[in-house]
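Team,

Forwarding the record for the chain on the shared tracking sheet. I've put the sequence and predicted structure together so nobody has to dig through attachments.
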Amino acid sequence: MPVNFKTRCMVLLGGVDLGDFPLLLAPMEDVSDPPFRALCKAQGCDMMYTEFISVEGLIRDAAKSVQKLDIYEQERPIGVQIFGAELDSMRRAAEIVEEAQPEVLDINFGCPVKKVVCKMAGAGILQDIDRMVELTEAIVKSTSLPVTVKTRLGWDDRSKYIEEVAERLQDVGIKALSIHGRTRKQMYKGEADWTLIGKIKENPRIHIPIFGNGDIDSPEKAVEYKQRYGVDGIMIGRATIGNPWVFREIKHYVRTGEHLAPPTLQERVEAVKKHLLDSVAWKGHKLGVLEMRRHYTNYFRGMPGIKQYRGRLVQEMEVATLLDIIDEIADRYAGSYHAEVVN
């Protein structure tokens, strides 16, 4: 049976109607770039975010940081996510982001990586909630863009202050809050805990959209967490890598209560080819080829014997040869794909 969300209102973010129960692509370094975003958008993603961008890189006009501001009309609505720790730098970066004209400016207060955290950026700011609120308020006041925040439950199990954080960030003007159900100490280990996310949704003071993030990797789990915790939408990260079809699968399940057939072998082949060619076109030959290496196995996940091709794919630098190897995979698994992988 289809899931009944008729009592839900449309989710509005910065004047943009995201529909009922929107699905968002999480910002991921070296993943959520324009080539990958195009694939996710085609499969029904409602809102996407850029890779997170260093404010110091932006204000210094660093090529890699500036390139991440590339936005294409077919991607909209889209949010640009920034991270940093210095007030003046954050303000100046917000001005630069505004010139790119995204629908939303998102602040990263959740990245757990050591090189970010040690600068008190990303999840590092969870050690100083007052500073977190101060930075957020300054950004809200310095831009005409709607400001949103992505964060975690807390620094560790003893400092899960997310309920207080949600109220305080709302009070200084953010328009939505995305919460990853882990602490910084957990990194990406263990199971995400959505309990506190649910409590925030139950708080009568909270009126901004709350998006849950963490461990959503199937249509069933997306619907279960929506019903159990009442979130306004779901942000999906690692489960999209090599699987942009997760968006259409969840939407079909919500609409019909039935599972959509998995992507065909031909769809997988066409997607990985497009991803490779777009990556090279956007990043240049060398970087485009190198950064595709993390994706190949994910696109062909579950195919027995695929490792023999992975070794060749991650060593080859010539695009034409890579396309030939992908075609070889298509020929190798043609006819046996559904029997071996799906059943």
